[in-house]
Amino acid sequence: MENLSEAVQNREKQVAIVAANGVDEGSLFRMKSALEEKGVHTKIVSTQQGAICSSKGKQIEVDQVFMTDFPIDFDAVYVPGGEDSIFTLQTEPGVIRFINDAYKSSKPIAVDGEGEELLYITAAGTELNKGSVEGIFINRASKEFVKAISQQHFLSLEKQRISA
């Protein structure tokens, strides 16, 4: 069991931060900082290449676009608030597919503010309407999200060990 714990700690964890123009930069950077403080890598994933503009006018570099990334590349998904950002994301089928695939792969998903609106048009939102769903965090503390990411790795590695 000790080797399994070491493998979990040594594996590079990566979270997709899903955002578009008009994102709430406070929400985005609070979670990004909290994740990175715990050694979790983050990538801004958007509908466009280059940079997006926050609701306050700050330019934020995009690391990857939806056409080139799949949820399997990430350990979790975070959607910050921002009315304009969420409106744009809701109209992109690739974004909905990305979040649906992450949910179906049991990846933790966290949303803040208006990000909840995006969540409710995905498979996760359909399940949330039926009751609470494990691994979904709406306007919750970053430490709960980080803990879920760590537990998800442990469970995934434990399944691999058992099936080997």
Written account of the structure:
Helix 1 (2-10) packs across helix 7 (142-163). The protein has seven helices and eight strands. Strands 5-2-1-6-7-8 form a six-stranded parallel sheet, with helices on both faces. Helix content is 47%, strand content 18%. It is α/β, with parallel strands linked by helices. It has a single domain, classed as 3-Layer(aba) Sandwich (Rossmann fold), CATH 3.40.50.
Keywords:
164 residues; alpha/beta; Rossmann fold; six-stranded parallel beta sheet; two-stranded antiparallel ribbon; 8 strands; 47% helix; disordered N terminus; disordered C terminus
Instruction: Please count the helical segments.
Output: 7
Query: Helicity range of the residues?
Result: 40-55%
Biggest sheet record: 6 strands, parallel
The chain-level structural class is alpha/beta
- Tell me the name of the CATH homologous superfamily: Class I glutamine amidotransferase (GATase) domain
> Secondary-structure element sequence?
HEHEEEEEHHEHHEH
Mean pLDDT: 84
Strand order of the largest sheet: 5-2-1-6-7-8
Shape: globular
- % residues in beta strands: 15-25%
- CATH fold-level assignment: Rossmann fold
Number of domains: 1
